[in-house]
Amino acid sequence: MIRSLPSSKRYRYGFTLFIILYFIFLFAPLVVTMILAFNDSMYPALPWQGFTLDWFFGKGPTKYGIFHDQTNLRSLFTSFKVAFSVMIVSTFLGTCAAFLFEQENFRFKGALYFLMIAPLVIPGVILGISILMFSNTIGLFIEDHLNIYVKFLGPGFPLVVLGQSSFISTIVALVVSARLKKFDRTLEEAAYNLGANKAEVLWFITLKYLRPSIIGGAAMAFLMSFENFNTTIFLVGSQATLPINMYMQVRDGSTPVINAISFLLILGTSIFAVINLSKGNKKIL
Amino acid sequence: MMKNRQHIKWGFLFFFLPVVLWLFLLIVLPHLELLRLSFTKANTGKLTLDNYLAFFREPIYWLTFVRTAGYSILVTFLVMVISLPVSFYISKMVRGRMTGALMILILVPFWVSELIRVYGWMILLRESGILNHFLVTLGFFKEPVEMLYNDITMIMGLVYTSMLFMVVPVIGVMDDLDNSIIEAAYDLGASKIAIWRTIIIPHCASGLVNGGIIVFMLVLGSYLTPNLMGGKNSLWFTEQIYNQIILYFNWNQGAAFGFLLLALSSLIIWVLLKLTKQNLKEVVKK
Questions:
Q1: How far apart are alpha carbons A264 and A269 in whole angstroms?
Q2: What is the Cα–Cα distance from B109 to A28, expressed in whole angstroms?
Q3: Which residues of A touch B183 (CB under 8 A)?
């Protein structure tokens, strides 16, 4: 059973075998995707045709590597732009929410808190369509009554950022709240007694204390935005983000350039994950 | 004193306003609009029940709905069954340092986007895929077999993509289980099955429910995995929503579908919470 109890060899080996199989199951698709990024073939499949870096650096005309693939590069850039904006918006909103719910008291606090955590249990598809419909209705209303066409209310960059922030802010709020809860408020009182004003206390004492969780939350926000598909698909205009663009290519069949992108993303997120986890930020939601 | 009070109020508004704007403009009002559109006729704004009636009249719609709900429950159950022994191994059977290493190994694939993980399965399983290549080369199969685009593969994919949301909370509660209770049961002669049934599983119930809520919601609302691994026959309800809105441009019908999906996920989550006497706040905080 557990470490301290004796158990039969068969039981122990059987269990270990199960775990090994589980980890193979976990990693097989990732490892295979990464290896095939280096196969000198036009298809992401075996047989092995030899090692190549063409799917990274190829300049064409038959093989366009990721660094010369304009469509994919453009969507990668779009994704970075979106993720950066979402990170700013949701870190601000999430931190405000953490302060509001941890340190303030007001009427309907419970109801508002419930609204804040609701996005976690609303499917992303629903968030996407409801925001699309709402902004479309406002856009039509403004057009009908004021005769102005408001571009940013149609699908496109601003709507993607708002749509993703609608639930990513909640996640930042939870991460920051968890640390704010442990904050010793006598530190604030001490600072007030020493003559600091509210803004100074907030900046020099509380926010300084919260810094690791705000950075952690922001990093999480960036990554979640970068990988989001379900909400984005309904809000995206002509500028596709990387997951949307990759989805089209995966669905319709593509060269191993997708493997090269995946290779870079898996490597990037793994490094990111290990750094984040080794810093003790074990909370994943 | 007066001045100080004024300060506090400004501070409160500084936090309050952005949060209220966020929650009303991006959550409450859009969902009210979704509800309103689902009850109106396209282009006229007249109230109607047609969008919901169409759902019940067309068997393909409600069958897809029932199928999606059933499969989501099945996936949630499978994920629970697999997560228990995995969590047990990591939490109770290996030594300290190994636990940390395995924990990181288990979390890393979670950070990689769903699309890439699904793509990995596609190149493994498709007709020209890696698995077929080996099975044919080694002589197990005469010809490659298409292993993608069926329900079993789709379910496996959904289990794979949502597994970590169960393993993490279950390891969390498993860590709190006092080893001496298991030792006591063992010393008193309890069998392994009895220990699992009467000690470990009841102790992990809260973690299983918390994970279950997240997994169920993710699976029910997932689009990529059923669409790419289930192929044309995947018939997942999110695809119906996508079709109505993007392909047919019938937003009112899409809104009704969206609302039905939302109602279903809320209902199941509510039932799970009631059954275990928890509320949403506690679940989210873990």
A1: 9
A2: 11
A3: 2, 4-5
Q: Give the pLDDT score at B44.
A: 77
Q: The tokens 């976690």 sit on which residue?
A: A120
- Model confidence at A167, in pLDDT bands (50, 70, 90)? very high
Cβ distance of B108 and A274 shorter than 8 Å: yes
Mean pLDDT (chain A, rounded): 86
* B contact test, residue of A46, A129, A248 with most B CBs within 10 A: A129
Mean per-residue pLDDT, B27-38: 92
**How many CB atoms lie under 10 A from the CB of residue B74?**
14
CB-based contact, B207 to chain A, within 8 Å? no
Q: Show me where the domains of chain A are located.
A: 69-254
Q: Residue A43 belongs to what H/E stretch?
A: none
Is A156 a residue whose pLDDT tops 60?
Answer: yes
Whether omega before A212 lies within 30 degrees of 0, making that bond cis, reads no
A271, A273, A276, A280: CA torsion to nearest 10: -130
Residue A282 has pLDDT above 60, yes or no: no
> Rounded to an integer, what distance in angstroms lies between the CA atom of residue B213 and that of residue B284?
10
Quick check: B224 contacting A, CB < 8 Å?
yes
User: What are the contacts of A3-10 at 24+ separation with CB within 8 A?
Assistant: A3/B92, A3/B93, A3/B94, A3/B95, A3/B179, A4/B179, A4/B183, A5/B182, A5/B183, A5/B186
State yes or no: pLDDT of B285 exceeds 70. Answer: no
pLDDT digits (tens, 9 = 90+) for A72-97: 889 999 999 999 999 999 999 999 99
- 8 Å CB contact of A46 and B124: no
pLDDT at B107: 82
> Scanning the structure block, which residue is given the tokens 């695809």?
B239
pLDDT digits (tens, 9 = 90+) for B146-177: 888 888 999 999 999 998 889 988 988 888 88
* pLDDT (mean) for A51-70: 77
On chain B, the residues whose CB falls within 8 A of the CB of A96 are 14-15, 18-19
d(CA A210, CA A200): 15
Q: Kindly list the residues from chain B whose CB atom is less than 8 angstroms away from the CB atom of residue A258.
A: 119
Closest CA to B78 of B219, B237, B230: B219
Tokens 């119930």 belong to residue: B205
Q: Name the phi and psi angles at B44, rounded to 5.
A: -110, -30
Structural domains of chain B sorted by starting position, each given as residue range(s) with its CATH number in brackets? 52-285 (1.10.3720.10)
CB contact under 8 A, A100 and B16: yes
In CATH terms, A69-254 corresponds, of 3.30.460.10, 1.10.3720.10, 1.10.760.10, 3.30.540.10, to 1.10.3720.10
Query: CA-to-CA distance for B214 and B201, rounded, in angstroms?
Result: 19
Helical ranges in A181-283 per DSSP H:
186-193, 198-200, 207-227, 232-235, 242-252, 257-278
Q: Within 13 A of B32's CA, how many CA atoms are on the CB side?
A: 8
Chain B residues closer than 8 Å to A202 by CB: 11
Residue type, A222: F
Asked if residue A5 has pLDDT above 70, the reply is: yes
